[in-house]
Amino acid sequence: MYHLLKVLLFRIDPERAHHITMWWLMLLLRIPGVKALFKSLFQFHHPSLERTVAGMKFSNPVGLAAGFDKNGLYLHAMAALGFSHIEVGTITPVAQDGNPKPRLFRLIRSRALINRMGFNNDGVEVLASRLEKERPEGLIVGANIGKNKITPNEDAAYDYLICFERLYHLVDYFTINVSSPNTPGLRELQDKGPLTELLTALQENNPDDKPVFLKIAPDLTTEQLDEIIDIIIETGLTGVIATNTTITRNGLTESNESVDSIGAGGLSGAPLIDMSVSVVRYLKEKSNNNFVVIGVGGIEDYASAKKHLDAGADLIQAYSGLIYTGPGLVKGILKGLQTSGVRRQT
Ligand SMILES: Cc1cc2nc3c(=O)[nH]c(=O)nc-3n(C[C@H](O)[C@H](O)[C@H](O)COP(=O)(O)O)c2cc1C
Questions:
Q1: What is the distance in A from the centroid of ligand 1 to the CA of 91?
Q2: Could you read off the pLDDT of 253-303 as tens digits, one per residue?
Q3: Which tens digits make up the pLDDT trace of 33-50?
Q4: Which of 68, 200, 210, 232 is the most buried (most CB within 10 A)?
Q5: Is the CB of residue 65 below 6 angstroms from any atom belonging to ligand 1?
Q6: How large is the angle between the packed helices 156-167 and 192-204, nearest 10 degrees?
Q7: Peptide bond just before 152 cis, omega within 30 deg
Q8: Domain ranges of the chain
């Protein structure tokens, strides 16, 4: 069924296709009985899949990665597709348009995407007012926060603090995004000095010890990863989300010319899996499993999900896999995990 829909959707500009699909999905879910139908089609529950991570109870290990629901509009729709958690954002203090369109591209033969969205979002106030409304039962909601494009890096901590404080009582966890390649200079915040300063400032304003994760790029050197391990432990952060999109263009089936013609942006989807998994494995091994790691990058089915989990990921997230695999993504992964005899968390 999704194969058929995909043929139609893939004829439309990717960003428009996203909005059209979500509009129809939300409309569909308003029809009496459709929610129950979705439950039987797309959700899968089993005690062995439940996880408690950083004090949060997840019904299964699979979440929706940041960027899909930047403005907290789709919590009910995405919960209906079986995700245990949804990371809204990246959100910034003030609404911004992001980069000029087109800014999202499909690489169909590689099952990949390139995006240079540039943190288009409605701003923290609008997100907060949406999160104040009723939330799907049992769904864990995280907020992925960033800085506005016009804010210089020296003042970036203020932007993160504004979002952190406004959303503090509205979400279950935070993710600090310093790894998007589409906001000029943002990735420099991954350097030791600015990163320590930023995370220390946030932790000083975290009276309830709310879980806080750092989302990192897959393009970091092992020296940079070592520094990040030290900083996470020093600042008492909950853990790392590994990884964001890559600025490399490795492992693509499309010709160099067609890839080059797309221009700048972060690459996600199937070609990212090995890079992300090796970051997950490195962090877990080098830190002696000292903090939580959430694995993201190239998860599109049970086999790719298992690679992240085998590398030590405590939870996993997906974005591009939902576009290529469709609404059965989560159930497919969960059934695979359950039948392969994944152990109940002890
Ligand atoms: C269109 C698009 C927009 C994204 N926006 C964000 C974002 O706002 N914040 C963020 O932390 N990650 C963002 N990401 C990165 C994803 O959360 C994820 O880390 C990355 O795509 C790798 O996972 P995947 O291979 O499952 O897509 C975005 C990805 C895509 C494709």
A1: 13
A2: 999 999 999 999 999 999 999 999 999 999 999 999 999 999 999 999 999
A3: 999 999 999 999 999 999
A4: 232
A5: yes
A6: 30
A7: no
A8: 2-339
